[in-house]
């Protein structure tokens, strides 16, 4: 599982000249956050692949892997409701 995630994350790049330095899918201008927002909004991976013809399933999975890695390495605090 770890090796698969590492390979997926290689699809994510950060370039200050693209998307204001936000993490993006390699060779695109799609920010990881943009793809995650679609998924959080209820779109499926298949929906995204249909909407964005230049994406591959592994690109979307890479966004999820990147998000998982980020959450694991950050100290997030959730305030009480």
Short description:
The chain has 81 residues and is mostly helical. 51% of the residues lie in helices and 5% in strands.
Description:
The longest helix has 17 residues, at 57-73. Helices cover 51% and strands 5% of the residues. A two-stranded antiparallel ribbon has the order 1-2. The protein has a single domain, classed as Winged helix-like DNA-binding domain superfamily/Winged helix DNA-binding domain (Arc Repressor Mutant, subunit A). By secondary structure, the protein is mostly helical. Helix 1 crosses helix 4 (57-73) and helix 2 (32-40) packs across helix 4.
Summing up helix and strand content along with how strands pair, one would put the structural category as mainly alpha
Report the sheet with the most strands, covering strand number, pairing sense and barrel closure: 2 strands, antiparallel
Tell how many strands the DSSP assignment holds: 2
Q: What order do the strands of the largest sheet run in, or round the barrel if closed?
A: 1-2
In whole angstroms, how far apart are the ends?
35 Å
Pfam families: DUF433
Protein name: Antitoxin
Present the secondary structure layout.
Elements: H1 2-9, E1 12-13, E2 24-25, H2 32-40, H3 45-51, H4 57-73
Antiparallel strand pairs: 1-2
Helix pairs in contact: 1-4, 2-4
């Amino acid at each position: 599982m770890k090796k698969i995630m590492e390979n997926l994350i290689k699809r994510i790049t950060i370039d200050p000249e693209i998307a204001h330095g936000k993490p993006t899918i390699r060779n695109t201008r799609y920010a990881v956050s943009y793809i995650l927002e679609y998924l959080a909004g209820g779109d499926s991976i298949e929906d995204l692949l249909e909407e964005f013809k230049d994406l591959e399933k592994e690109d979307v999975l890479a966004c999820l892997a990147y998000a998982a890695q980020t959450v694991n390495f950050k100290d997030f605090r959730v305030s009480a409701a």
